[in-house]
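FAQ

Q: What does a record look like?
A: Structure on top, sequence underneath. For example:
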């Protein structure tokens, strides 16, 4: 197979030629286990050590190759793109490491101007940040400063990073993420995130009308838990990422934005995972013509170069604000140069159109799985983002994390690396937005075959709480 797009190409399909982990990976894992922290000693989900990445393919130290459907958790939206990394390297050589919020430089100005040009309507200001976590912290501070109000409305299942205060804001996608770290403090109230497949207080699969979540906010939360005049803003992911690629309806957004206007709430869109092409548009806000007060950027803005994030806002929120969203490593010249090059490449190389073509491939190859297998509850696709939700059966839609884990293991051994996490039941595919559609189609077909193999002999499900029975969080299989 031969294909090309966005300046890259692939000539040989990924293949696994050793057991996983291979002998060299196994030796390196043993060495790593002697010096690394606990979370980095778990090699089950990714049973190899990376040697190099080119375009959309990862090669391990044993010579195995894998199609990359992780994209560094979205931080390499164009794969290994030499144009962006080359520009970043030139800027590093010219400027070195610089603290941009103290010593200003031209790459930072150029990036700020470009972000304002491509941002959702009404956005006119930009603040530097270094990670999605810090961008979220700044967004909350801005909303509180702009309104003089203390409370933030969040949603169950969202992931906003792992900082200190905002571990309280991350409900989160899995409770174990914030165990022993969450700050149980005032200032946050939560509603369920819109989910048309699996709704609270309902048994069995949808589709459900997701305006019921707006009903819950208006008729219960604002009546029994918080006065609307105390809410500074709504912190929401336009598409729920870690929680399973959930896409709210236009009707939900109409209801939520009406509440924001009625009560003076600031709409804070956490676009850390959805910005710059992931959903087939520059910002997911464009899918519903949303006009947010604050937009949080991360991951994809890095263009595979250096860590960088951004906080965007309206003049009313940010022009005269005293909130400082940056820090020592925020918007180094090299990171800014790489981010700007990435934005230009997305536009010049038609990556947004390609992301929509990847969505078409996923629809064609993966949607039929819902009718084919009892254990495939739902398939959700938006741009270059796919979630396949596994259940024990369609009547109860009980989550099936063991089935999910088995599918992932079979796919890795077929040369496909997607996103999984122990205890979850939604398999995510997150290709680079410029990946050749033919290569992505091959990966989807591997998924179809792997799911069929596991469905023929589905594993027993230990239950979501089995790992906590002895008070210790660990893998049981």
């Amino acid at each position: 197979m031969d294909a090309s797009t966005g300046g890259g190409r692939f000539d040989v399909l990924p293949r696994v030629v050793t057991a996983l982990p291979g002998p060299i990976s196994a030796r390196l894992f043993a060495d790593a286990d002697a010096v690394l922290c606990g979370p980095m000693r778990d090699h089950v989900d990714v049973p190899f050590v990376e040697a190099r990445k080119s375009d959309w393919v990862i090669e391990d130290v044993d010579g195995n190759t894998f199609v990359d459907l992780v994209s560094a958790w979205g931080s390499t939206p164009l794969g290994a793109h030499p144009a962006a990394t080359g520009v970043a390297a030139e800027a590093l050589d010219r400027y070195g490491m610089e603290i941009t919020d103290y010593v200003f430089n031209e790459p930072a100005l150029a990036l700020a101007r470009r972000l304002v040009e491509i941002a959702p309507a009404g956005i006119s200001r930009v603040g530097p940040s270094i990670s999605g976590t810090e961008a979220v912290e700044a967004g909350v501070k801005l909303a509180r400063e702009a309104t003089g109000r203390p409370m933030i409305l969040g949603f169950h299942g969202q992931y906003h990073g792992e900082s200190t205060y905002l571990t309280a804001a991350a409900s989160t996608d899995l409770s174990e993420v914030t165990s022993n770290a969450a700050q149980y403090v005032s200032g946050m109230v939560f509603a369920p995130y819109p989910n048309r497949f699996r709704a609270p207080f309902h048994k069995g699969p949808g589709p459900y009308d997701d305006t019921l979540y707006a009903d819950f906010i208006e008729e219960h939360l604002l009546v029994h838990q918080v006065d609307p005049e105390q809410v500074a803003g709504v912190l929401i992911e336009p598409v729920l990422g870690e929680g399973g690629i959930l896409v709210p309806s236009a009707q939900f957004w109409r209801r939520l934005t009406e509440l924001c206007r009625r009560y003076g709430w600031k709409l804070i869109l956490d676009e850390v995972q959805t910005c710059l092409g992931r959903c087939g548009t520059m910002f997911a806000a464009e899918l519903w013509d949303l006009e947010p007060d604050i937009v949080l950027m991360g991951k994809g803005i890095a263009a595979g170069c250096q860590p960088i994030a951004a906080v965007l806002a309206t003049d009313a929120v940010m022009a005269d604000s005293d909130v400082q969203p940056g820090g020592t490593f925020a918007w180094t010249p090299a990171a800014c140069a790489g981010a700007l090059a990435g934005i230009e490449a997305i536009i010049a190389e038609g990556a947004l159109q390609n992301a929509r073509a990847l969505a078409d491939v996923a629809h064609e190859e993966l949607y039929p799985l819902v009718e084919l297998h009892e254990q495939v509850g739902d398939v959700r696709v938006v741009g270059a983002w796919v979630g396949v939700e596994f259940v024990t059966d369609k009547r109860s839609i009980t989550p099936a994390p063991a089935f999910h884990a088995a599918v992932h293991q079979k796919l890795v051994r077929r040369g496909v690396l997607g996103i999984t996490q122990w205890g979850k039941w939604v398999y995510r595919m997150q290709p680079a937005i410029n990946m050749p559609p033919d290569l992505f189609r091959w990966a989807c077909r591997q998924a179809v075959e792997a799911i069929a193999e596991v469905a023929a002999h589905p594993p027993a499900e230990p239950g979501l709480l089995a790992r906590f029975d002895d008070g210790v969080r660990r893998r049981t299989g």
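Q: Is there anything notable about this one?
A: The domain at 82-348 is CATH 3.40.640.10 (Aspartate Aminotransferase; domain 2).
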